[in-house]
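Comment thread on ticket #2218

A.B. wrote:
> Attaching the input chain for the structure job we discussed in standup.
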Amino acid sequence: MLTLLTSLLLTGMSGSAIAEGLSANFKNTDIHEFINTVSANLNKTIIIDPSVQGAISVRSYEQMDNEQYYQFFLSVLSVYGYAVVTTPNGALKVLPERNAKSAGIRLLRSGEIPESDEIIVRITPLRNISGRELAPLLRQLNNAAEGSIIYYDPANVILMTGRASVVNQLVSVIKDVDEKANFQVETLHLNNASATGVASLAMSLYSNGGGENASGRILAHVVADERTNSILITGDEPARKKMIATLKKLDEERGALQSGNTRVIYLEYAKAKNLLNVLSGITSSKSATPNESSPLVISSGTSNEVSIKADEETNSLIITGPQHLMNDMQEVIAKLDIRRAQVLVEAIIVEVSDAEGLNFGIQWMNTYAGGTNFSSTTGGSVTTIPDKGIVNSLSGLSGLATGFYRGNWAGLVTALQTNSQSNILATPSIVTLDNMEAEFTVGQEVPVLTGSQTTSGDNVYNTVERKSVGIKLKVTPQINRGDSVMLSIEQEVSSVSDSATNNDLGPTFDTRVVRNAVLVGTGNTVVVGGLLDTSNNHSENKVPLLGRIPILKYLFGATSKKVNKRNLMLFIRPTIIREQDEFNRVSQQSRGKFNQHDLKTAADHQVEQILNQETGLPGSANELQQVLGNINAFYAGQSR
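C.D. wrote:
> Ran it. Output below, let me know if you need it in another format.
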């Protein structure tokens, strides 16, 4: 029977209660009676589960206050396998421990957990370690019948259910472990060794799978940063210090060229020999001049050196030296070894003559903006071509078209070919890389006597050099921002002068040279030139014998003098080729031109053979076609 002991201490004022105590003495008492007595003493509503049955025996020898008495009540029920759960409205439920976990247990937060046997739920976050490895250890400290340990991976928290006293102990364990695992991160830069190799070696020395040694103690973890050739170390302070000391020993310099840090970089676009010369200038000092046989040795200002050698057979660079210098070199090489755009350079080298005494007119035109036609006759007028009638006005032009325009290149070639005053010397078409010089040469080697020596035996030894004459064109395209190309042009047209072929001092050469740089958009045509060459032709026609008689020879002969002027002009059009599809398109267009030319030649030859067989008259295809044209014109006139 529960006995309530109340003692009153009286002071100067009567009837004032200053203290009261509770004690318990039960022997084989029904558990329902025990619970009801506690409910009355604590003035709490207690709900008893129907499965709660049995008798209890308990006795207290000390007086307790209400809180102590409540904790005594919880402990007694725990001994007999029962638990108390607080409901949201403040009532208490007594039920078996195995059912307590699913009975709406109260969630307590940090600082709210009392030291009692009440069943509670506690959520504990982890900051430095993962709860995946810690949760199995905590389950061994908790009673599985009355509690549980659950790890929630996305939030890295642990949910614990159990008696408040046990949960408090588990929280203390978690905090202690989590604080000791407050790892910091340190960075160690390596000067000689490779970060990847050193990190792998260090982990194999100190770890036994997952970064633990044989005793299971967590050591420092290392991660290699290849970009900066550094190692990141994380772990507790003693482990970090031990790991850093080991890493520094592994990074001790053993001689850069003998350290084993060697890389072979295979180039995709650039030439290894050319790139070696470029790399020789990226540092302020170098200990050797690069050549084909000896490697380039570049100093970094300290005892560290990097050696670079080019292998032309495999088009590769072999780099040996400290890791950080090799990384810098590799970044530079990657930026230089890129696919370069190409430029298709099409040109027309033409000579325009005015042997008939006609002036040469120049028409400045633009496909989209109109142009001006200067008449080729002396004193001719100036005609303005409207911007919408250029195509219809081309037939009326009496001179040559020039200037910047987006016209039909094939049409320009045809116009020059059909002009009797124009003589196309060459139509080169060259594809070259950006900033790479392209050269076109058509001509011959002319011997030039440079010296003569006579020996004592009257033997004459002549020294002869050969000089190239003909057509030379050198073009260096440079692709600028956007679709513009800067062309460095060097054009030379040379020949042996007819007027000095019998000169004892040797032949005389006529040379016309143009060196220029122009900026033109891709697909546009620009004209460079305007070099005039004047030649005087003197000829005599006379009657045999009579034409040799002095004075009378003028009556039986004729003398003519003719002045020929030739204007050398260069039409040039660059086209930027960036992708393989553009290159294939240009190649297909070039093949189409040759196919059309072959078909036209074959057709002309067939017509010539048929006409020769039918008429028995020899003649070229052009002459026969002209005859056919006259016949057609005659019948056309008869029909009218």
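A.B. wrote:
> Thanks. Noting for the ticket: The longest strand covers residues 557-577.
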